[in-house]
Structure prediction request, 404 residues.
Amino acid sequence: AIVERALGQYEALIEPNVEKNSFFVPILKMPASFSADDKARLTTAYRKALSEKIIPSLVKLSRFIKNDYLPKAPASAGLGGMPGGVNWYRFQVRSSSTTTMSMEEIHALGIKEVARIRDEIEKIKTQVGFKGALIDFLKTLETRPDLTPFKTDEEVLARFESLNATVKPQLAQLFGRAPKAPLEIRSVDKLIRDSASSHYILPAADGSRPGVFYAVIHDPLKYTMPSMATLFLHEGQPGHHFQMAIQQELALPKFRRYLWYDAYGEGWALYAESLGRELVVYDDPYAYLGRLQSELVRAIRLVVDTGLHAKGWTREQTIRYIMTTEGRTEAAARRATERYMVWPAQALSYKIGELKILELRERAKKALGKKFDIRAFHDEVLGNGPLPLSVLETRMDAWVSGIR
Prediction:
């Protein structure tokens, strides 16, 4: 199923008309300082490379994927269906979570968190006066005109810019340090949009490029408002932008300034979503509902990722579970399922990391009492670069002891 989904992307890259081919775009963006002769020479050389080398190679690759690779691709949905797969998955769980939690413990935690979050969503449903079942309430969110007000990609991006304008002045209340690099908001390139997720790209170390939050906008007419605030906090600031941009500014060995641990990085970004009330973006029930939906997604991942790779769940079973638990469309549930299929255990990192940071925050508040400073806590969490959760816990306990 995964290879079949990927074929369309390969085929999109083999457009024989050079000027319509995706790889021709960069040559249209040569600096104005280039002379006319240089532009002509480079354009000619680039056309030749595309037509004689790049496109023929991509045709060859596409044919190989379709005719040779696809027939031999495994039909199983998870690692558990492959020789030694369960042991390999156990290693991936340890690597992504940076904890000693077992697959069974994580699965049980997911079921518990899903139930808790759905109870919170029930309260929102009651608050806004919806009378039907929870799953019907969640399904209506993607079709209501008041929650899908956009007509163009530009309108969606403008809404994200408005969120940024609201959040930015509030950040000093929660952080003593902010990244030097600015944050920009852009839409994902159409070439990869169908299979991409919204994401963040860190700034250039020399300051020549900002940090960028890339939003995936499949169809602006169907883009829902409730999810936007929590998505911005996660991918923008104070989520990945604060964590990753500050990280490369730290006085650390270079390898640590570019190191990455899923549980720390994604755990921080999910934790950042929980700061929405202080940052004044969860000021209506639907915006807060978006936060709960986002958290529900991450809790569901604990269930379905372990289900797929350790408990023998099928692709179809996983799609059904996501649809009936979260209210997502079949297409959205399929995209999510296929992500978990090809990236075992990575999806576990978000909730496990978030819960650990929340635990450390409550522990520090209890131990320090009136001495607790949320700005100092956040700066300490971000001030040592990414760490395994076990190391982060040790450092934060030492920080608390030093203050106490």
